[in-house]
Amino acid sequence: MEQALNGLRVLDVGQVMAGPFCAMLLCDMGADVIKVESPKGDSTRYMAGARGTDSPSFNAVNRGKRGIVVDLKTVAGRDVLQRLATSADVLIENYRPGKMKELGLDYTILSAINPRLIYVSISGYGQTGPSGGKGGFDLVAQGVSGLMSVTGEPGRSPVKIGVPVTDLGAGLFALSGILAALIHRTRSGRGQYIDTSLVEAGVALSVWEATEFFSGRGVPGPLGSAHRMSAPYQAIRCADGFITLGAANDRLFSRLCKLLGHPEWVDDPEFSDDSARVRNREMLARRIEKETTSRPRSHWLALFEEHDIPCGPINDYRDVMSDAHVRAREMIVETDHPTLGRLSTLGTPLKLSETPLTPGRPAPLLGQHTDEVLRDAGYGPMEVRALRDAGVVK
Q1: Which residues contact 154 (CB under 8 A, 6 or more apart)?
Q2: How many domains is the chain partitioned into structurally?
Q3: Catalytic positions
Q4: CA dihedral 225, 264, 308, 163 (to 10 degrees)
Q5: Rounded to two decimals, what is the model's pTM?
Q6: 333: containing domain
């Protein structure tokens, strides 16, 4: 079937996660994504003891791409990338700010060659500002952006969010910028420069926390699983573990109170509206758990679901990957990889009726499509051989 981005060519000059993740999503949408790697390859090829050709980590954020090896430290290698950029629609890079300019491969240079090029830079802090020249890592960005200050339990050591949310968030923000720039290009004929960062992604995702601060309610702190604007909306202990419970409006709270055998809580001034319940969330949680710890999780999940109160189990990833709903929604797909064999990978959360996404293709081996991509760019067999002999491509 036709895909939304068929015919779009993307140069993925990124590494590790943020840039490659953004490029992979474009690939899922039908774009021809060319993964440009150094002779050593992306460092994710060697994560968790992998040897470069058998890396599940690399496959996780590079599926479906064509792979080419170009040594950008050489003049001839930079010439190859410039030549590829003449026919590209999008270029994505996530090097430290200034690196691409040093190489003569920044937006100013490449947009002069191809004015339709949409050029994306994802960095730790952005291209400008007092910290603009710094490199970036998700852990650091979670700390700088405030995310770690509101994660975990009160009074405990700082913890990061379990997933690399600023890396992935920056990739998602970059994706939305690319799609907007493509629409603008259809009207103007011009590409543009997109600049986003891990720190900004973390700040931008802090919607409730920023609201609490801007509204004069003080500096937000960690609340464990609780919500800072509604209650009860958190993990609740049962006889054999925890469930999540979200009775976060007056109607649901009234229903919950009746099921727990305490309809009088509705009229208690300490719980009479959401603001009161937020102020007294710890007391409310203790009262709820006094009842829920008398029965196992299965009892409460069945009862709450029967009465349409939002709740759920707290799954580990073994549970997630075997969950019937997750599988029915095709969030796990099988990939035939040339060295890893049959490989389970994540599917896509986007279900498009007319232009479906294709997340099930394997990532390239190192340099797998070098000759093919160079031929597409107009290089003849003798030129390719010369580049190979010189160690410029692999």
Answers
A1: 221, 222, 223, 224
A2: 2
A3: 167
A4: 0
A5: 0.94
A6: 9-205+327-389
